[in-house]
Amino acid sequence: MWHYLFNIFQLLKRLLHKIFYGLLTLFGVVTVIFFILHKIPGDSAQMMQGQREDSEQIQAIKKKFGFDKPILKQYTLYLNDLSPISFHSNNQDDFTYLSSNKYNYVKLFTINKTSVVLKNPYLRESYSKSGKKVSAIIIETLPNTAILAVLSILIAIIIGIIFGIISALYKDTLFDRIISIISIIGMSVPSFFSAILFAWFFGFILHKYTGLNMIGSLYEVDDFGEGRYVQLKNLILPSIVLGIRPLAVIIPLMKNSLLEVLDQDYIRTARAKGLSMVQIIKKHALKNALNPVVTAISGWFASLLAGAVFVEYIFGWNGLGKEIINALNEKDYPVIIGSSIIIAAMFIIINIFVDVIYGWLDPRIKAT
What we know:
By secondary structure, the protein is mainly alpha-helical. The protein contains 14 helices and five strands. Residues 93-101 have low confidence and may be disordered.
């Protein structure tokens, strides 16, 4: 009983430790991106106004979005918007978001003239989409990116593990060398170049035979503009391109890890008992060989959410990556910062989840 409770306590301790450092990482991401973006030359208010030279409207935009305040004040206000627990002056001229129903909130208590509020994190509004909430933009685009990333990593996992096992069993053969060459090429070629090459070759040159398009998203509008329909074939090329690099990493990792496990004493004992190689790999070797592969998968899955930026843009996939490129072109800072926060949060969540998987794959990690 006490041993069971101690294990739970240790698990919670490790999770809290990782969550704490994850929040510090998130804070660092927000800080760095905020100051980098706000040091880029250009008047955001003027950009939002377009070609119209209405000084009164420009001043109104600056006041609404806080452009007229010092950079440190803008940074403090952004953190206050982002934090679930925030401080708001009762003076509405000093803080406008709380009174404009941008998010649901509960007033906890008041200190002097400052209210302490519990609320949803507020990522503010897009500069270029007529006041549309950044959270709404992310909700619309993130599922498409997640679908693309999940399919890409599944392709990499299935093919990578199978090829890694075969390469280990047939070490130093012609098949092993061919797989090694393919892995090196896959790791060396940038994703944006692979995307251009695949789009041109399979979507243009071989379009008559493949039926695939150079560009396209998960949902397309029919010729009459009356509705949307799912176009699954548009998922094929970008998912393959996005899965090439993690596939190229997983294959040699799986091979080397499995070779190391197969050299252990307990594997020799299993062989001496007359077990076939398939039984040995399935029952004994595979689980222990997956630790470094899980590390690679977790890191690459989180990276795919960020690395999909150029792949989505080249294939015209309406995901978060393409939205970030558009936001960079339009200097839409809230969308850029909000998207970066979501991607960083995904990294943190995946790393914590993988830490739990480690404990299942290797019980020795629980004691560390």
